[in-house]
Amino acid sequence: MDLLLDRPALSQVQTVSRNGLKKAVQDYLQELRSAILAGERTEVPALDQVEQEILRRLEETEPFHLKRVVNATGVVLHTNLGRAPLGAEAAARIAQIAQGYCNLEYDIEAGKRGSRYSHVEDLICELTGAEAAMVVNNNASAVFLMLNTLAKGKKVAISRGELVEIGGSFRVPEIMEQSGADLVEVGTTNKTHPEDYENAISQQEATVLLKVHTSNFSIVGFTESVSVRQMAQIAKGNGSLVLYDVGSCFLFPREYIGLHAGETVTRALQDGADVVCFSGDKLMGSTQGGILVGKKELIEKMRKNHLTRMLRVDKLSLAALELTLRHCLDPREACEKIPTLHMLSMSRETCTQKAAALETALSGAAPSLHIGTVLTEDEVGGGSLPGVMLPGCAVAVSSCAVSAQRIEQQLRLRKTPIITRVWKDQVLISPRTLCDGDQQELMQAFRELEQLIKEERDTK
Predict the structure, then answer these.
(1) Strand, helix or coil at 370?
(2) What radius of gyration do the chain's Cα atoms show?
């Protein structure tokens, strides 16, 4: 053990701690003893050989559990893969703020304590037209804070069709109960009319009207819902509040992205919502965060809620959010520099061109594989725009020697995993969701696949 730990190459390993290195050596020696005792080995390898084998194992072992993956699925906001990827500028901005101190809650001009919301509030208000704004750590927190501050002990009317459940069993009725609000269900699952809210106010004494965007599903057919504008008109004559959890939305007209679905915060406020909350890591394309906008006195009440400290956003998220908001001041710049918006705005023609170039490159790396292109319907993902498909094109990979499932597994279990989808016995690789540097990983992975196929053929 001591001889191996003092070997030059092993003693200079930086990827694991001293204890981690010691465990790797112990594991190898134990395997060696077991093999000798079982008669599987008749001699002990030289120290050089042992050293190289341990180094090889350490190289294949990823020191971190949270790791970068290549998203080749075509799902832009893939919840399981971290949703919105950040661009190079945002990543650099986070690093700059992380590597030292910053004025998170310090007013430099006044020389005294400041507010962490000041770094982004003016930008959010400029982009949305809101009187005031604040940010918490995610949109679930924003919904809870909004209800706990403005609806605790009050009756809140909400359509049955909007009593949704999102990922992780986050259910609106249970969140309302925990916040202290008293739920008043109105309408039916598929149809809710304006008079349903009017009756909730006049007959059940509801003083808050809540609208929740059904972001992760859609009801089609014989349906009817009440718009924010209609709810605001109803509330206006009764002194009621209109709160809107829009879930995910754009900060500028969706036409810039080439989509005809998705809401904007500006429209929700113009239609009369008193407070609107939404996610930062969905259609905005920034880090995780829950953004609250609306009337100044209502936002101020939420800031003073003791829960706000528990739900507050950190400096790294604020750094990325501020940069994202600045990009959004110019929609064209946003679509170019914010990866999520760039991916969403990618046309089928562009996807086809990228897929053709990728097909050529991968065919050169793995000539034994059958590689072509196929038209696809990519997804927005993240429970953002249900039913909205993105016309795209993907590289389709198959082999006579190994199954599509085996190819998918080999790509997924690499040191840098490549996550794909299997369709009709083919592995699909969508260029829409590839980030900078991903093609190099794909090239190396396909060289590895070529070697795998060669070994499979040699064993037959």
Answers:
(1) strand
(2) 27
